[in-house]
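INFO worker-7 received task bundle
INFO bundle size: 2
INFO processing item 0
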Amino acid sequence: MNQISQFIPARGARRLLAALAATALVAGCASSPPAQVATPMAATSSAQAPARIPVKVFVAAMFEIGQNTGDRAGEFQYWYERYWKGATPIEVPGALKPVYCNADGVCGAVLGMGKVNSSASMQAILQNPRFDFSKAYYVISGVAGTPPSRGTIGEVNWATWLVDYDLGHRWAPEEGKPGAPTFMPRKGYEEYRRFQLNPALTAWAMKLSADTPLKDSDSARKYRLRYPDAAARRAPFVGTGTHMTGDTFFHGPGMSKQAQYIAKLYGADDYVITEMEAAAITLVIKRSHGTDRVMSLRGAVNFDQGHPKESTLAHLDPAPGETAGGFAETVQNIELVGSRVVDHIVTNWGTWQAGVPALR
């Protein structure tokens, strides 16, 4: 002001300052709208936000081979064709693939293979504001391996326990006592390394699905006969037991024996399924909503070891014509078994929404 008054008469200076103040006031009004203008805009934006989807059952698969329908089926295709054919995909930031939902509250997605991949997707989906998981049930679904002493190709298995195969200490066999286990659990991880799933829910799953007619194939039948075990030679069936979650796709009787040792060490049921995701996904669900409504459903497409005349390396990388058959039938069996439980929960939602009802 002092510099302006040196060159402009006092009256002119006052006029100039008044004009500048008016200009500043107009500019301030333009850059900062009154509160009453902003509030209706915010209300309009909120009104346009899509309603949350109440999820009754969420089905998680780990991979799909190609498209969701119309080609060779992976873990997701039969689920998709039953519940979401034509549904609009819902993109979720942080998830590997979109989520699909139907009008009955059944939602599902491909989460990705392995513990980190699948649990990251599950976390992103659970935290997304589009979905209401407060009353949801979960079916963690996919293919798996089985020890020939406990299971067979084409069987479908509900988990009673989930055990983390990787979380602990390991060393080379030659660096310990001959024949002794080469695994020791890490202390302090008791609540992360094993989960007992709701026994009442598992019992319901078996009640609803144990008599499901299962698919089989000639190639799977012939392959089973390479094994002397009575369980391995069985036709496909629906069973229960411990599912061992490990990023390591292990092979051979030694590793299978170690998996059984870990299951018993943790007080779980017999190890019957080897898979790569369920314990990690369940931990994510537990931290958000608890584990009383989690189911793990796996179909066996391979044995975790070779037959007596086959080396472990040959079993790991089989020659043409030496692989187990039955993959196409097993992925269909998984959906045939699992959909019985999903449909029952949704149809009887008035009974199930408050929690697992008493088994009758």
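INFO item 0 finished
INFO processing item 1
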Amino acid sequence: MSTIAPVAVGLVGAGPWARAMHARMLAAGPETRLAAVWARRPQAAAELAAAYGTVAAASVEELFDRCEAVAFAVPPAVQAPLAVRAARAGKALLLEKPLGADLAAARSVADAVAATGVVSQLVLTKRYHPSTREFLARAAGAEILGARSCYLHGAFLGGEAATGWRLEQGALLDLGPHLLDLLDAAVGPIATVRATGDSRQWIELTCEHRDGAVSQASLSGRVRLPKPRTRVELLGPAEELVWDSGDIDHEECWTVLRAEFAAAVRSGRSGPIDAARGLYVQELVEQARG
């Protein structure tokens, strides 16, 4: 049995995503413990904290005092300035994508992480599933001429995910980071991104990779489907390589994410899916936005 103490993580946010994933994942341990919750709505913070036997902090400063790492489950415009403050307070960061509401805000987070040297990790959910890692390992040895991909769902049609920033910015800022990250990792570094369509309805991305390959991504949060559809197809002279999220159990993602974040905090070294990666992906999003 490990004698390493669990990482004390404070949670910023008490909305649907904080309830569905962050609080439950961090409280489950054993690598982490939920040390406190803070939200702009004190009642929501108190209810979430009580559900997991922890405390609701009266301020962000109190949250920082109670933890060694901070997880964020808030809109990007809220995350960026608070993440900068947390980094300057010496706290490790578990960050959502996108890092900020715009590129300047995202850069402020990455710069604060670089300046302070704190550990950072990005919640690009599907990257933590074993099947995704197996797919990327196979892609590393393949000759790829082109790729097709999609991330489609109907969450923006209504419900808890149909929040202000998602409806205003659309699929590019919300779903785009996932596919751009996967295409960049699977096919190779992306040199240019062009977009057509309306991010609030349906948007198509065309990526030209540095090695000459071309990939495309279809994004929409306003299509009625039985369940979300995320798929990447890699094509070349050999047999195609396909990754599909249809059979992914996200609970397996959370287990890996939690363990790797705790290991990074204890070692003092961030993994590859960090704030710098988040900034790089957001630079691609900004390029697509034109």
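INFO item 1 finished
INFO post-check item 1: The chain has a mean pLDDT of 96.
INFO post-check item 1: Residues 175 and 248 are 17 Å apart (CA to CA).
INFO worker-7 idle
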